[in-house]
Every structure is written in C-alpha cells, then in structure tokens.
Amino acid sequence: MSAALDFASALLLAVGALFTLAGGIGLLRLPDVFTRLHGAGITDTLGAGAILLGLALAAGWSLLLGKLLALLAILALLNPSASHALARAAIHGIRRPWLGEPEN
Amino acid sequence: MLFLLLSGAWLLLSGHWSAMLLGLGLVSVIAVVLLCVRLNILDSEGLPLKQVPGLVGYLPWLIGQIVSASLDVTRRILNPHLPISPTILHVDATQHSAVGRVSYANSITLTPGTISLDVADHQIEVHALTEDAAQELAQGEMARRVCTLEGKSC
After folding, report:
1. Cβ–Cβ gap A25/B13 under 8 Å
2. Does B121 share its domain with B59?
3. How many structural domains are present in chain A?
4. What are phi and psi of B96, to 5 degrees?
C-alpha cells in the first residue's frame, strides 16, 4: 500500500515537472505575450496541480494534506485572475495580438 | 457561515491547540466577520455558497478539459513546426448572475489554450492559441455547464 502510494506520488511529481518544463519551453518558443500566456498556463494548472497532488499523496493523512489541498484551491482561483489581469492589461495597452504568419 | 469558514482556515493553518492561540484566532475571526458585516459585503457575490453543490458535478469535467487541453498545447509547443493559429473571438456569456459570468471567464482562462481578454456586459473576448480551441469554445459546451452550475437554464 505504502509502496503504491510512493509510486503514485513520484509519478505525479514527474508528470508535474514535465508539464512545467513544457510550459517553460513554450514561454521561450511562442511569439508574443498572449500566446506565451497560454504556455505559462500549462505550468500553473497541470504542472503545479500535479506536483501539489503528488506532495499531498506523500504527506499522508495529516494537517499538511489539508494545507496542500487548500493551496490547490487557492491556486485554482488565483491563476485565472492573474492571467486575465495580464491579458487585459496587454490588450488595453499598445500590444496587438500576433495573428499572422511567421515573420521570416 | 463565514465564521465557520474562517475558523476552519485558522485551525488548518495554525495547527496549534493552546488556549492562547485559539483565543487569538477567535478574536481575529470575530473582528473579520464584524468588519464584513459593516462593509455590507456579505451577499451572494461576496460568499457564493449557492454554487458549491454544483461544483461537485462541474469540477471533474473542468479538470478533464484542463488535462486534455494541456496535452494538446504541450504537443504543439514541442512540435518543431510550432503549429499555432492565434485567434480572437467573442463568446456570449448568457449567465444571469455576475458570479456565473466570472465562473465562465475563469474557466476559459483556466483551460490552457484559451484566455479571456475582456469581459463586457454579456460578451467575453477570448484569445485562443489555435483555431481548434476557438471552435471548441464557440460550440458552447462550457457555457451550458456553467449555466447548470449556476442552477438556471439559459
């Protein structure tokens, strides 16, 4: 049982790390601020979510588990607000979304 | 209700059971509740408890959407050709309450590949990473489910 939990926890942590890495690569490769927000979106939804779930499995039944789950809920509320604030600031500023073909 | 929520949060975050710390927590909770009552923000918007039962059905679906959309965006990012087609579209937010529209806009942003840019009265301006993601959103599956979450049909 404990071995299975450890395995699931490690698997979730690895998946979270992979998605965080993919989000980082997206941040570097994508062309403008709006598309980069999509890349960052993977990092803080699935990346952070999987890592927190993995940590929750490792924590077992304790106060720490409750704290991790609370953190997950707070993150789920906070992340869209922050992304929306960034996107809104960008669209009301001078940025025009990149919609066309690659420049070169 | 807010009293119970805040007390729970204090116990969860402190984890100490000594009389002095519990007393401090009680004083803080009472002070916050009194302030909220005085500020008049204890309404359905400040404390959207009516939505909580609907979340049980909505959250698993949303998480499924997030996972599948994440996989799609990840594939596109790691693809050497970077097959993206950024699109701007407007979707109708037919939800009756402000909380419902905020839930919808937040669900859009939370799903990788779509971000809500601006919320007008009953329309949301959305930036989508790909045409496919834009079309899927335009079909309105998510809008219908947020309506169900709100407890009304629209």
Report:
1. no
2. yes
3. 1
4. -75, -45
